[in-house]
Specification:
The complex is a heterodimer of chains A (205) and B (120).
Chain A lengths: L2 E13 L5 E9 L2 E7 L1 H4 L3 E8 L7 H9 L5 E7 L11 E2 L9 E7 L4 E3 L1 H5 L38 E3 L3 E13 L4 E5 L9 E5 L1
Antiparallel strand pairs in A: 1-2, 1-12, 2-11, 3-4, 3-6, 4-5, 7-10, 7-12, 8-9, 10-11
Chain B lengths: L1 H10 L13 E10 L2 E15 L6 E8 L2 E8 L5 E8 L32
Antiparallel strand pairs in B: 1-2, 1-5, 2-3, 3-4
The chains are: A mainly beta (205), B mainly beta (120).
């Protein structure tokens, strides 16, 4: 599963040949640099570490500077491991969007937007109580019952309740590639991807 | 925003729409598919607003059908828009003339702005 690290640029829409308006996400993906090749003998598994997005050398720790120097590249912000990657890649190779040239569909993972402390209606799509009137007091978005009484005398683990929402890694499967623009390292995907504009995402085929 | 424009331009089809804004009376020739057949429907009315930019821009046209107001929102880049003709250029002080919805009868008129067009 070769992949790339990218940055979400934003959304737009395009018209298909049939005239259907398609929502699309624009992603700046790569060019990524191979900064480490992990092997079964040395590390216990095969993987390739890719790096993306320039970083100031001043802001890089000495240890990481050495790591990037080994690969013969400038410091980068984001490092991600991919496995398995084609075996013929070498340290310091650059991988670009043309990686997806003959692939129609990709999976995208990223960190979803943090929503803070949310109730069950937003968090788990509970329906709320239903009526606004007919004797309802202030229970419009309440979760309802969370279990029976004397048996089991407790609330089951994993009961869905209000709490911190969003801000966790989500993967969206099978997004169609609408276009690849190699000059600007752009990928245009059909549909939405997790995260803010400018957040890092991982694209895998 | 810049890279979004790059992506939008990659899909852009050349359109040749005239310049128009809120208060103008325009006729939109819109291609409508009915089964396998295609025909053109004209929608003539006053432009209430132009919204958005780039590939996602839209405009709203309002007309009176009998005594009922009808509004349609068209995406500016829609491939179904065959042509747009500007019938009248209106003189309004706002970019979005929402107040126009409440006006009926003789009040629902917009002063025309006389535009000098040089004939070629």
């Amino acid at each position: 599963m070769p992949g790339l690290i990218g940055k979400k640029i934003g959304m737009t829409s395009i018209f298909s040949a049939e005239g259907i308006n398609i929502p699309c996400t624009v992603i700046e993906a790569g060019p990524c640099v191979v900064t480490q090749i992990k092997t079964k003998e040395k590390d216990g598994y095969d993987a390739v570490q890719l790096a993306f997005d320039e970083k100031k050398e001043k802001r890089t720790t000495k240890a990481m500077t050495g790591h990037f120097k080994k690969a013969g590249t400038t410091p980068k912000r984001k490092l991600v491991e991919f496995k398995p990657f084609p075996e013929d890649c070498k340290l310091g190779d650059t991988v670009g969007v043309d990686l997806f040239a003959d692939i129609g569909w990709v999976d995208v993972s990223g960190k979803s937007k943090g929503k803070g402390f949310q109730g069950v209606v937003k968090r788990y799509n509970f329906k709320g109580v239903g009526d606004k009137t007919h004797g309802q007091h202030n229970r419009l978005r309440a979760p309802g019952s969370i279990g029976a009484s004397s048996y089991p005398s407790r609330v089951f683990k994993g009961m869905r309740m209000a709490g911190r929402t969003g801000g966790d890694t989500k993967t969206i499967l099978n997004l169609k590639i609408e276009k690849i623009i190699p000059e600007q390292n752009l990928i245009v995907l059909r549909g939405s991807v997790p995260g803010h504009k400018g957040s890092y995402i991982i694209i895998e085929s | 925003m810049d890279l979004i424009k790059v992506a939008e331009n990659a899909f852009a089809v050349e359109t040749n729409l005239p310049k128009f804004g809120a208060g103008d009376t325009i006729t939109v020739s819109y291609r409508i598919k009915e089964g396998t057949k295609e025909r053109i429907q004209n929608f003539r009315g006053v432009v209430i607003q132009r919204k958005g930019q780039g590939a996602t821009a839209t405009f709203t046209v309002r007309k009176m059908s009998g005594s009922t107001g009808v509004e349609r929102i068209f995406p500016t880049c829609s491939p179904f828009i065959q042509s747009i003709t500007v019938n009248k250029t209106g003189k309004v002080r706002r970019a979005r003339i929402y107040y126009f919805r409440k006006l009926t009868g003789k009040r629902a008129r917009i002063k025309e702005r006389r535009v000098v067009t040089t004939k070629k």
